[in-house]
Specification:
The structure holds two protein chains of two kinds. By secondary structure, chain A is α/β, with parallel strands linked by helices. Chain A is built from 19 helices and 23 strands. A seven-stranded mixed sheet of chain A has the order 11-10-12-13-15-14-21, with helices on both faces. In chain A, strands 3-4-2-5-6-7 form a six-stranded mixed sheet, with helices on both faces. Chain B starts with 36 loop residues before the first helix and ends in a 5-residue tail after the last helix. Classes of the chains: A alpha/beta, B alpha/beta.
Chain lengths: 611, 350
């Protein structure tokens, strides 16, 4: 075995990646979460990426913890400390240890072959043996092995065990025996490395004060919280990875805040549909009837929902659709991330249909934009797509705490009350009374004068069936005007300008944000200066058009094969498509700044140019 | 063409308790073929609503696609209606009903809409015991696309061109019984005296009420050799139970009295009076209902009436513990936990 501290290793404080290779179904998720959260509680910025298989038990899973003093929250693509707990993936995991890095392995068994890697250091800890000696049943031994590596990693890197102890205590509450057992396992790992590897690793976690006012939360939970705060009362869904946890979270929030303590009555209704077609139909029925309604799903669900989405668009029924995108096409990679439903959602359904989309980039925006989505859906009386993805939805992100303004009043749009209906002469559902392309609507049961017939068949401004070309076109043209007018109401793009004039820029969307920001810093170090705009809504505002026009060339950075954001920009702005350069990543992993840097540099090299 | 209003003259017509005539319960002019069974169902619905003294705005009409689904425009013009996509009416009804259970939901569907493209949604609405009246206007044929067999076409029934159907039929009543529906009836559009009380009873039943109405298609399925023609239906039509609906009940009983009449009080008001025919049929016996329909099918009889009734199943609202105040009418402060709660719940993410 090599010396513990490799002379060539530079000391990295609060700036390295711990990658844990494990087998799914062994309970490693809570151990990994514990490690990450402990670092967070030490005041050190951190992000966790869970790489899991589409499987219940027995397949490889990885968890990457990036400790990032500079708050770079993208995947770094490096692995300075690899914890190899899965024999099946050992060779791959070994290969991924960054040069100068460390491999922690279970030395219960003979030390595995290093396959010629002389640039790394192997650290053996007899995890299984220690757990077998100290715990009785087989399941406990497996679970505790995970806790033992938590202790070992803490010991090697300086993660505060007292912080871990406090968390274990919170986790198990009054179950003292579980607290004791878990702490015992953690201490086994800790003491072993302290005794056997007394010299500290060059990978250090040192307390900072950079996480105050922040939380660690996943985007699905944040979006669910947004649904709760927006006053959504109806949700229908069909289970699909990676959106399922959104409804799980909504349900648990509702059970906490929306159940009458005396009567047990529930101020919400969640229906698990028989499929996505039914789920969107239910949400539309509830929206038609005046409730804030939503359905969370993923790409395959959007495909199934498409007919109904066109109905809601044409019949002008508010509904919010959460699309937690995963890699396609078809079943694709259900547990991998992509931004591959952009064009699908933008034009979902047959015939001329265009929708409103919002693009959150992190859980804080998930919370805020979920609330906005309901306002938009009711204001514009149309489906609104909330375009998130697996990386945002299922990974824990460090974000500033969410705020709320108690003076917020939901924008319920133009809904006529009983009194309004008493006063008006005659009500016509699709009449553009205000000249803003948004008609008034009424709810069933309120007043006989408000009755109208919602139909997906051709209709005129009165809501009557029509096959008359002029009448049909009149409604269709108003829908276009209505859709376009939404651009101003959507979350504004976020623009970052470099401190010197830039001829080139990046336009990106959603969860690419972290990778783009980090790439821009790296590129700036190489003298390549770019401006940056992150779009947050579709239809695009004039600001997007103007930003593109301002630059000679714009790199459109996104996570799909077909440059879907670029397609939307070409379709829906006046941008010259030859000046929109696609920079694409569709490997299914959380965005990594490398692909942005390489994409930009490749283009510049091809041009023989510098920014 | 555009939809045409019906001429509105009701000066000499009788009024119900709300001071409304049947005209107030009508919709726009039907565009179906002259003699279509569906128009008779529409007329029965108008009659039933008028007789029940229900405010027109207290109803919500839902439908999918097809000749039957179009009819929601032809009755209750003062009620909201939603004519959605093919076979998906039950889901829209589910969502609508969940957020306001105080309306009377009437779903109109067809055999194609409910038994082919929408078979899944039909089944699952029953499983949820959605509180609605669900009418299938069943003619065994696709009308709007000009005469293809539907899933309810009987084995051997002939198309207009004389081609026999070679697939076994789906019987919506048997399906509903096996799926646990609490109110299952079969009727014939040609017998308004049977249909109107069944509609009233179905509306007042708290839970899923299915009425499968044999409603002949005069254009594509009313020829010799068809088992869904007027002539065939009249010939093999066999009422099992006579049903009367009385708006206000005074006593509650559930057994056949000595005069052969069973009285059932419905949760939503009113009383059902069921009279036995010679068959000694008991609509409380689910297994017997299934058996009766299956034997009827094998000897070509169309057995009608209230085939099964169970008032004791909790509907979707009860199962979900929904409050008396509809979800769509809850004040925002009853839904949003506010700033204080947000601050404290975020502690768990620290």
């Amino acid at each position: 075995m090599k010396d513990i501290v490799d002379a060539t290793s530079e000391v990295r404080v609060n700036d390295f990646v711990i990658k844990i290779a494990n087998v799914n179904g062994t309970g490693s998720a809570s151990a990994n979460g514990l490690l990450m959260k402990a670092i967070f509680r030490m005041g050190v910025p951190v992000v966790g990426k869970n790489l899991f298989p589409s499987n219940i038990q027995g397949l490889p899973t990885w968890y990457e913890i990036r400790i990032t003093k500079d708050s770079y929250f993208a995947r770094s693509g490096t692995a300075e400390l690899v914890v190899a707990m899965n024999a099946e993936t050992y060779k791959q995991d070994l290969a991924e240890v960054s040069p100068g890095g460390f491999l922690l392995y279970d030395s219960t068994w003979p030390r595995p072959d290093l396959h010629g890697r002389t640039d790394i250091t192997a650290i053996g800890v007899p995890l299984a043996r220690m757990c077998n000696e100290h715990f009785d049943n087989a399941r406990t031994r497996v679970l505790m092995k995970n806790m033992a590596y938590v202790g070992a990693v803490a010991g090697l890197t300086g993660i505060d065990v007292e912080v871990i102890r406090a968390m274990v205590t919170e986790m198990f509450g009054t179950k003292a025996h579980l607290i004791d057992a878990n702490m015992k396992a953690i201490e086994l790992g800790l003491h072993y490395v302290r005794e056997n590897y007394p010299d500290p690793l060059p990978l250090k976690v040192e307390a900072m004060d950079a996480t105050a006012g922040h939380i660690m939360i996943d985007g699905n939970t944040a979006a669910a919280l947004g649904c709760l705060y927006a006053g959504a009362t109806f949700g229908a869904w069909y289970p699909i990875t990676p959106s399922t946890s959104l409804m799980d979270a909504f349900k648990s929030f509702c059970e906490k805040y929306r159940v009458d303590k005396d009567t047990g009555e529930k101020r919400f209704c969640i229906v698990q549909g028989e499929d996505e077609l039914a789920s969107i139909g239910m949400a539309i029925g509830a929206g038609w009837n005046g409730a804030r309604a939503f359905t969370p799903t993923s790409g395959p669900g959007i495909s199934l929902m498409s007919e109904f989405i066109g109905f809601a668009y044409y019949g002008e029924v508010p509904v919010v659709i959460f699309d937690v995108q995963r890699a396609g096409p078809s079943t694709g990679l259900p547990t991998r991330t992509q931004q591959c439903d952009l064009t699908l959602a933008a034009y979902a359904s047959h015939g001329d249909t265009k929708h409103i989309l919002v693009f959150p980039a992190n859980p804080k925006e998930c919370f805020e934009m979920a609330v906005q989505s309901f306002d938009l859906a009711e204001r514009f009386q149309t489906p609104v797509f909330f375009m998130t993805d697996l990386d945002i939805g299922m990974n824990d992100w460090m974000v500033p705490e969410f705020g709320w303004d108690d003076s917020y009043a939901p924008d319920r749009g133009k809904v006529l009350s009983k009194d309004d209906l008493e006063k008006i002469g005659k009500f016509y559902r699709y009449e553009d009374r205000d000249g803003d392309a948004i008609p008034y609507r009424t709810l069933p049961g309120v007043h006989p004068k408000g009755a109208y017939f919602t139909r997906g068949s051709g209709h005129n401004w009165k809501g009557g069936y029509t096959e008359d070309s002029a009448e049909y076109k009149e409604v269709l043209d108003r829908l276009t005007r209505k859709w376009k007018s939404a651009a101003k109401a959507l979350p504004a793009p976020v623009v970052m300008r470099c401190d010197q004039p830039a001829r080139r820029a990046i336009v990106s969307v959603g969860g690419c944000d972290g990778a783009v920001r980090e790439a821009m810093d790296r590129l700036a170090e190489d003298g390549i200066h770019l401006n940056y705009m992150r779009v947050r809504g579709f239809p695009f505002s004039e600001e997007v058009d103007a930003f593109i026009a301002e630059h000679d060339e714009v790199f459109v950075v996104e996570q799909n094969r077909d440059a879907q954001l670029r397609t939307l920009l070409v379709n829906e702005t006046s941008a010259d498509k030859t000046r929109l350069i696609p920079v694409l990543d569709y490997a299914g992993m959380s965005a990594n700044p490398k692909f942005v840097i390489e994409g930009v540099k490749a283009r510049l090299e091809a041009l023989g140019d510098a920014a | 063409m555009t939809s045409m209003p019906k001429p509105f003259i009701d000066k000499h017509l009788p009024r119900n308790k709300l001071g409304l005539s049947v005209r107030n319960y009508e919709g726009v002019m039907s565009t179906l073929c002259a003699g279509c069974g569906h128009d008779s169902v529409t007329a029965a619905l108008v009659q039933a609503f008028w007789e029940l003294d229900l405010a027109p705005e207290s109803a919500a009409k839902v439908s999918g696609i097809g000749c039957s689904s179009k009819t929601t425009a032809y009755f209750m013009g003062q009620s909201h209606g939603i004519n959605c996509v093919h076979g998906r009416m039950p889901s829209v009804a589910t969502g609508a009903n969940a957020v306001n259970g105080q309306l009377h939901y009437i779903g109109i569907s067809g055999d194609g809409d409910s038994l082919s493209i929408g078979f899944g949604q039909f089944a699952h609405a029953i499983r949820r015991n959605l509180n609605m009246l669900y009418i299938i206007e069943n003619n065994g044929v696709y009308g709007l696309t000009k005469g293809q067999f539907s899933a309810s076409a009987d084995y051997g029934s002939k198309s207009k061109k004389g081609v026999p159907n070679e697939q076994t039929p789906i019987d919506p009543c048997i399906q509903a019984l096996t799926l646990g529906a609490g109110f299952v009836a079969r009727a014939f559009s040609g017998d308004k005296s049977q249909l109107v009380p069944l509609i009233k009873a179905g509306l007042m039943h708290k839970g899923f009420a299915l009425i499968d109405v044999i409603s002949p298609c005069v254009t594509f399925n009313d020829h010799a050799g068809s088992t869904k023609s007027y002539a065939h239906t009249y010939k093999y039509y066999h009422p099992l139970v006579h049903t009367d609906f009385v708006a206000h009940a005074d006593e509650i009983t559930g057994e056949y009295a000595e005069d052969g009449e069973m009285r059932v009080t419905l949760h939503d008001g009113g009383e059902l009076r069921l009279r036995k025919t010679d068959d000694n049929y008991d609509p409380r016996d689910r297994a017997q209902a299934i058996e009766t329909l299956m034997t009827g099918e094998s000897n070509g009889e169309i057995r009608t009436g209230l085939l099964y009734l169970n008032e004791d199943l909790p509907d979707m609202h009860a199962a979900n513990k929904l409050p008396e105040t509809p979800l769509n009418a809850l004040p925002f402060d009853a839904l949003c936990p506010g700033t204080g709660a947000l601050a404290s719940l975020q502690k768990r993410y620290r």
